[in-house]
Every structure is written in C-alpha cells, then in structure tokens.
Write a structure and sequence with these properties.
little secondary structure; single chain
Length: about 80
C-alpha cells in the first residue's frame, strides 16, 4: 500500500467502490503471502481492523458464503 493505493504484484488495484473523498494515506512494506493466506482489507479503510492491523488470514480461518452482492448494483429477481 503506497499513498492509499493497493498494489498486487506491482499493479495498482482498481477500487471504484471506495469513497474518493476518504483520505487513506497508509504506507506499508510489501507482504508476501503463503499459498493458503489472504490479505483482507475493509472498504471503510479509516475504520477497518483488517490485515493491516492483524496480518494475513489463513484460509482455514475464513467461514461464510456471500449470498447477495449490492455492488456493483445488480437487479434482484
């Protein structure tokens, strides 16, 4: 993370869902993940306790399933 932008393998991640008015100037050193690890970030970066604070999350620690997506806007049947 440099100047609030997330880079994955050297490429800036497009995050159109973030509020452009929010100013997150987080700076981080590169993080290398194991094959079964994930670096998770909240979309409310100023108030999220995510991998920036607690580190990578192991695959076995993740539970749940997304049932509905609100963004991008979808049409519900």
């Amino acid at each position: 993370i440099q100047d609030g932008r997330v880079f994955v393998n050297g490429e800036a991640l497009l995050e159109p869902y973030l509020d452009p008015a929010a100013h997150d100037y987080t700076q981080m050193r590169p993080v290398t993940l194991a094959p079964d690890e994930y670096f998770v970030l909240g979309d409310n970066r100023d108030r999220s306790n995510d991998s920036r604070m607690i580190g990578p999350i192991g695959k076995t620690a993740m539970i749940g399933k997304a049932l509905v997506a609100f963004y991008p806007r979808i049409r519900l049947l």
